[in-house]
């Protein structure tokens, strides 16, 4: 009996880990980058649009001629569709991050489909068909049923290989240090221009860290690409 209990506990731990682990491919294939050693990377930003920090990021990215990929929360898209249009006008990629940012491992499939479709509708209203068929699960949470729904809708699941842990960072330097310790080339970098907790959340550290990271890696000969550009090259 003890052995069975230990095995059951181990199975639960294994299952739980792979619902959230960014690079796990156990429950379904996700895109996390192109492999170590490549001289390019992708900047991705979650939880926007967010005034004024998404707008500040547009300015920083324009200054360095970098295009990024933004996974947007639908309720904020409805609130500020003008910022989404600014992202598109600047040449960035925008995509689905659900409507309210729930953890999908605790949601039914009907609830997930509603989150997905409401965000798609918000993006359609803001920019027509000018958004990418990409999806990033909030908190990285996913399970097999999530992948089945995505397959039916044609949305490609995108995770990450590097995170700056910027949602609670105390400084831009802290974000930069966490990212640089993980970069191996060919990476998808996760940062945040907003927060699911509140519109207007301060992301000034992320803006500064983004500029520092771009300057650093462009100086080392890296190119920055959007997620669709990276996927096209694989």
CATH class identity:
Alpha Beta
- What would you call the structural class? alpha/beta
Topology-level CATH name: TIM Barrel
C-alpha Rg (nearest Å) = 18 Å
Number of domains: 1
Distance between the termini: 48 Å
Overall shape: globular
User: Helix and strand succession?
Assistant: HEHEHHEHEHEEHEHEH
CATH architecture: Alpha-Beta Barrel
Overall mean pLDDT stands at: 93
Tally the helices. 9
Level of helix content?
40-55%
Give the low-confidence spans.
4-14
Q: Quick one: biggest sheet? A: 6 strands, parallel
Q: Which homologous superfamily in CATH is the superfamily? A: Glycoside hydrolase/deacetylase
Strand fraction? 5-15%
- Give a count of the beta strands, DSSP E runs of length 2 or more: 8
Describe the overall structure.
The protein contains nine helices and eight strands. Strand 4, helix 6 and strand 5 form a beta-alpha-beta unit. Helices cover about 45% and strands about 15% of the residues. The relative contact order is 0.21. The strands form two sheets. Strands 1, 2, 3, 6, 7 and 8 form a six-stranded parallel β-sheet that branches. It has a two-stranded parallel ribbon with strand order 4-5. Helix 4 crosses helix 5 (about 110-125) and helix 7 (about 170-180) packs across helix 8 (about 205-220). With about 230 residues, it is an alpha/beta fold. The radius of gyration is 18 Å and the shape is globular. The chain has one domain (about 35-230): Alpha-Beta Barrel (TIM Barrel), CATH 3.20.20.370. The protein starts with a helix and ends with a helix. Residues about 5-15 have low confidence and may be disordered.
